[in-house]
Each structure stands twice: as C-alpha cells, then as structure tokens.
User: What shape does this take?
Amino acid sequence: MKAIELENLLKEMSLEEKVMQLVQVPGSVYAKDSATTGILQETVPEKVRRLAGSTLGIMDGGKIRDIQDEYMKHHPHHIPLLFMLDVIHGHKTVFPCPLGQGATFDPDLTEQAAAIQAEEAAADGVHVTFSPMADLVRDARWGRVMESTGEDPLLNGRMAAAMVRGYQGPDLKDGRHVASCVKHFAAYGAAEGGRDYNNTELSEHTLRDSYLPAYQEAIQAGARMVMSSFNSWNGIPVTGSEWLMKKILREEMGFEGVTISDWDAIGQLIPHGYAEDLEDAARKAMRAGVDIDMTTGAYAGYLEKLVREGRLPESELDKAVLRILTLKNDLGLFENPCRGLTEHLPVHTPEEKHALARKAAAESLVLLKNEDGVLPLKAKKLAFIGPYAMSRDLHSTWAINPDRAQGVSVWDAAQEMLPEAGVEVRAAQGCDMVEDGTGLSFFVYHDADQREKNQKWMAEALEAAAWADTAVLCLGEHLLQSGESTSRAKLTLPPCQLELLRRVKEVCGKVIVLLFCGRPLEVAQMADHASALVVCWRPGTEGGHGILDVLTGKVPPSGCLPMSFPHTVGQEPLHYDEYATGRPRPSEGNDMFTSRYLDCANSALFPFGFGLSYGKAEISPVELSGSELREGEHLTARAFLTNHGDEKAAHTVQLYIQDLVGSRVRPVRQLRDFRRVLLEPGETREIAFRIEEPMLRFWRADQTYGSEPGRFRVWISLNSRDGDPVEFRLC
Ligand code: BGC
Assistant: This one.
C-alpha cells in the first residue's frame, strides 16, 4: 500500500478500531500453550480479542496461521494481526547468549547469527523480535546482564546495530526477516543494587554519554520499534516520561518507528506511585508517547473514553496508529497476512546454521588462565566432570523454544572428536547444579535422596579424575540463575561445585575449568585451583562442538571479557571506564586517604577486554602519526602485534582514549575502536586506527555535545588495563 492509502484507511477506521491497534494481548488469549502467561486470558473481552492490533509469545507457525486466518475474517478493515516474540539469541538454532556474543567482539558474526534467527522466526510466522537489548550493564548482580553485550557503550552500540541489520535485512517484505524492537529504553541496566525492576538514579551526563549511545546506534541502523523500560529514571517511570520517550527518543534521536511498553509497564505506573489508577496510567503513558500497551488492558479500557472526554487529543492516537499501520505495511502483511508461512523461503541450510552456531560458540569463549600451556589439550586420558559435562541445556531462558534435540553437550562433542585422535575419555556428573538456598527451589526439583546421590556422584568423579591425566571440570550457574528476575547478591558457585573442584584437584594434577554462566562470577578460587580457566557463558546449540574446537586447538581462543570480573561482589557495580576521583588510588602502594577499599583492589580481577589466546602475543608501544589533531583532520595510531609462539593466536586489539581535562570529568579510559586479528606462528601484523574529532565528543557542562580542545591519551592494548599511553593535543 502507498502512504496515502494508509492515511485513507486510517480515516475510515472507527475510534474503537484505532484504539485497538494500540493494544497488545498476550498469546495465551489465542493459544493456551504460548510463551506468555494468561493474566488477561480469562478477562479479555471478545471485542479486544477480535480487534487487538498485536499479540506476543506464540511460537508455532501452524497456530499463527490459524489465528491470522480467523482474525482476518472478522476484522472490519482486514488489518492483519502483528505477531511478536522474544527471539533473543536463537529461535530453533541457538547462538551464544548476548553476553557471549559481546565476548566475540565480532559484530559481523552477530549480524549473520541474527539473520539466521530472523529466518527461522519468520518461517514460523513471527513478525517482530524484542531484540536487541541494548542496555548498558555494569552490575553483575543483575541477572539480565546475560541479555546484554556488556559494559561498554561502543561495543554495545556496534553489537546492537549488527543485530538490527541481521534481523531486518535489506527488505522487511521478503518474508525472511523480522522487524527489530530495541529495548529497554532507557537505562534499565542501571537498576540500583543490581535488583531487577529497581529504580535508576543516574546523572544526565552519564545517561547521555554511556547509556544512550547503544540505543541510538540501533535506531540509526534502522530498528523499527523501541520498547520502554520498567524502571524509573531519576524519579519518573520511563513508561510515563515525556522527556525520555518524546524529547530524547523522538526529537533528539530522530526515532520515527513504533514504541511499545514492556510487559504490564503501563499498569506498573500505579505501584510506582506515578498514576492513580489504570485510566490515569493510560493517559500518562499515551502522553509520554508509548504507542502500544503490552498486556495491561489500560489502553483497551480507557483510551476511547479519554479521547471522547477531550482529555487526550485524537491526533496523538492517529499518529501512533499510522506508525503501526506503516510497520504492518512495510512487513508486507497487507499483501500476505501469513508472510513467511506460506512459501518456503529460507536461504541457509541446516549445515550452514550449525556451522555458524559452532563458530560463534568457539569465538565467545574467554580464556582467563592457561598455566604451562595445558591448552590446547595434550592429555591422552581425559575425564569430563561436573554438572555441565553432559548437559545439553546450554541455551538460556531467553531461548524460548530451542530445538533441544540438536543440542550438543561437551561430552557429546568429546566422544565424537577425541577418540579418533587417540584420546581416551570418561565422564562423571560429580555433583548437582544447585543446592538449597539458591532461591531456585521453586523451579528446581530436588530429590529427597540428594545427599546420597551427591556422595555417589562424587565418588565416581574422583575415580575418573584419578584415572585421567587431565580433568575438565564443567561447572557453572543453573540456567535459571540468569535472565529476567534473577538478581543475585552473591556471585559464587554453590559449595558442592567448589568442593568438587577442590577434591578433583587433590587426585588429578591438571584441572581445566569450563565455566558456564550468564554473568561475571567470583572466580578467584577457580583460577587458583585450575591450570586453565575458560568462561563459556551460555554457548547455545553447538556449544559442545565450539568448546572442543577451542580445547583441541582447532580454533584459537579469541574471546575478550565484555564485562569486568570482580575479585568480590562488594566491588559491584564495576566498570573500567570510571571517573578518576580527586584522590585516585596510586597504581603502586596503598596510601591511606585515597579512594580505595581496605580489603580489596579497586580494579577487576580480570578486566574488561581481557582474554588470552594460544601462541604468544606481544604488542609494540603505540605510535601516533602526529601530536596535534585539528578539525577535519585525523591522526593514525598504530602498533605491531607479533605472535612469538608455536600455535595460532587470535586477539582483539583495542584502541582506548582518555580526555585528560574537561568541563566535566571524563572516564579514565574509553574504548574507541577495536579489531580482531588472527596471527600464524611467527607472524607480525600492523594495526592502525584513525582518531577523529567526533570520537572525542561528550555531553559538556554547557549541556551540549561536543569535544573540547586539550590533551588526550591513547592506548593500543589487548585489554582495558594494560599498555603505556602516548599523548596528543586537540587544537
Ligand atoms: C521483558 C522483556 C520482554 C517482554 C516480552 C518482559 O518481561 O522485560 O524483555 O521482551 O517481557 O516477553
């Protein structure tokens, strides 16, 4: 349809019909086994069921087709229903969780993975995915860090944009792509104390400099939707904030697409203490600029009344409806309401999808320690021990409907790949994944005879460990310990897993720990006991293969931490790009009246950007092409990376800059660019980065964006802590 036809359609619609375009009902209204709970299912009036503009959480193509066919029969203007779903890191084929994808520092790979997810979801009738989550995260206590790509604005922005490009492709109409909804706007990741849904108190300059850029990148990449977040920001719930949703999002960021509240977020304006009742909540959210009400029924119940009473302008409603009609039209729904379902469109073969998931899993691994070159594996007798050794649950709670039969555990891959290389393998469970007191007893079934079972598992594990030359301990958080509403005040593994590590170490000299997790954990004890420590995140369908590829040396490890790993939870929130303070802790010594902990370092145990590879990399001092940068010109910063080892090495070379003096204090370092490099043994590569004035801009004291003349420091390094800087001056 042409734009003018959409406008004519809008004119023909009744007020009730228009209101209903702004209403999203849970999938359970139409399909009882959808991914959504049925809070509105029993109460939703028939007219809402028949006229609601969108629904979420239905995963089955056959059902979507039946629902759409039935819906179209009754809709007065034959406007198709829009189907949305959380396709976060996989629909059928699951890729590493977003935090794992952040660790790859490989936006191209993420874009390809997103394209496959879109293709699979579109083939099941899905039109919109609630992804990417572009929230910046600095607090590992927050369970949703797993859904983000980490603590750095630049990395997050590149990853979010890559996801948007991958999901949406060059043409939304082609039936192989889905529209992307960026979430959760804004600053949801800064929840106080890392407690989910908690309020956010954040200065405007930190919001603008650190939290907004990734949403902005996603919008610039063309994201068609934005979701408003649950949290309040500086006292105003975002879903009712005109300043954020209109002034910042629409006026400053130039977003022209559809906005939607998070689940029940409009209703939550009441417990926030910001709205009197649902009617007041509907009015405040609509005024703030939230186009679609996800599941509360506030818009369905009150928008018509508010317009008729003159308390909301109909023109506001019309604009929102037109945006939704435009999205439906751009998706090709008016021509084919069952797009994606009616013809066989996929371009990726199952083999290609699995190969990419395997590559992504391998690239997401972060090698934190490798003592005496225990990796790549040299052992001839290997025991795979621990609750993750045989587990195929390597996805996350946000892979809602994965193809479980395709999942490859570490043990599956070990059996497939190692015996043919002359390696003997054994496996043992060792212990349970969780113990009581994890807050999961509601979900996780515990056998009454768990104690006895654990004793038996421990005995079997110790026997296998004593037999082996090397034990590969597969430890980690339970699947349900990261994701939404999984905040933790402790960042440790359960005692049974640490006990397993200690006892295995007593009988087997060499221990490699594979750590499966959705967040940074306290890993000091693991790093002390183990010869090697590898963070595997939640690696997805091909996790087992990807991990074995790295352990055997087929693929050199290349992942870097997208979030700082603390010594202890007491350091959280923790991020490398902090402000210096007036009494910075000296790099050497431990002077009394400086900004420090009495009992812990300030810095991370493993900093942002850190990750080892095989080979032996050495980076030369950074060189600058000049000492002054003038408007419209650029400087080149370069360094040489050499692999002195006998194995291939893969690293992400990182460019950091510090603005030494500003009208506002500036972070001690900021990532400004990065490049992945693969080096053969003995190879040297030159890495060059351009430094330009726009990279140096920030929200200045005079409330404008811009750079300020003065001194800057530049590092080229392999993580956010190391390296010696050189200086230049911006004139
Ligand atoms: C989450 C969103 C998600 C939505 C729909 C909410 O609880 O916060 O991230 O997209 O549910 O499933």
